Amino acid sequence: MKSFGMTLSGEVALPLGFVAGRIEAARHAFGEAEAFRIGIAAASVLSGGPVVVGRDGDAGEDDGDADRGGALSDALARGLAARGADAIDLGDCGREEVDFAISYLGAAGGLALRMRGADEVILEFAGPGCRPLSVDAFRRVGVLARAQNIDAPLSSDATRGSVRRMDLREAFAWYVTGLVDPGAIGSVRLCVGAGSRSTAGTLAAVAEALRARGADLDVIGDRAIPADRLPGAIRRHGCHMGLNLDDGCLGARFLDDGGRVIRPPALAAILADAAIRRAPGGAVLHDPAYAWTLGDRVARAGGESRNHSGGAATLAQAMRDAGAVYGTHRDGRHVFRDFMFRDSGMISLLRLLEVRGRERADLSQLCEEQEARFPASDVLGFDIPEPGRAMDDLHAMFRPAAIRIHRDAALTMTFEAWRFHLWRRGAAGLGLTVETRRDPGLLADRVAALSQRIGGYAAAG
After folding, report:
1. Average of per-residue pLDDT values in the chain
2. Where does the Alpha-D-phosphohexomutase alpha/beta/alpha domain start and stop, copy by copy (predicted)?
């Protein structure tokens, strides 16, 4: 068959999952041969400039094979070059640094390799300007990677691309520290637990850039503190904040000065406030899960709050369309206009430190004040056999008392003193958040009632 400028014949078994712009695979199924094929396929859809490759520093280290992550990224780069693309190898780095490099170099796209735990490999794709690949382009990557003869014939020496090693960590650190006021940050002590080689290196570079700008970030821990001991270490060392990097920088969990995890509603509210103060009157997009919390904080900062019900996958594009300065999703995603409309744990960290210094208050105090205004639940999940039926029944049950109802793929019901947001999670699950107005007792009562009701469907099933 003729496709994408190559003649393809048959397919090979490739036990990889191609899901929404990234490849997920069991670690044993993702070797150098698979990475090489994917590099070739990626070069066929990413054209018009170099392609950036980066790898998580701990990829492959759990079984003592410290070079495995490097071998996989080398294979990706060789595959890109074999099909005529110039590959830029960033070495150990997180996905944020790959995103930065795409913009900084004007690259055609990027591939970010990382591990999820000890058993799964994840390869994330981004196109020009850090935009996600189109559904069609990503489908072509899958078709080409599985083509039996994708590696023959390869580019001649005249058309073969190059592989260059490049270190942009210092440039990345200088860029992100320029998105905050170092004078507001002042002198701060940060306690860090877990994480990878790459996140430790990035933090060190950011601390150095802050010092050059007049602030002082003292990092305690640097991978040596297990996550379960991090709260105690924060208190023992008198740190102003903690950072749990078990899931990398993008999945970072932030802890206040008392060692408590900063909960999603308060975290999003503080980050929204910081974004609006840098862009007065700007818009903030958020899903309906914490609409009261976000709406109130954005309004007090002088911005515009807008609900985005399209889900995490469409948040960045919706922000581009609206020119929004910040966007957040209930899954913990924090997307910044200043960072190519991509999510960034490092910018989230710096903005939290900036707000703490500007307000001259501990993060624990700032979070308590925010949560007192609108007590809210965490994201609650329920596995039930008929989620659609449960949603219909709850809609009918609470409809007489509701003052506002919004129903699409999700259900949002608003009452005088409380509200809830309910959505489908996969084929057999529901997600729930509840908010109240200055009434933690009502929050506990409503969460218990709704949980009992929804849980009853699981029992009935």
Report:
1. 90
2. 267-371
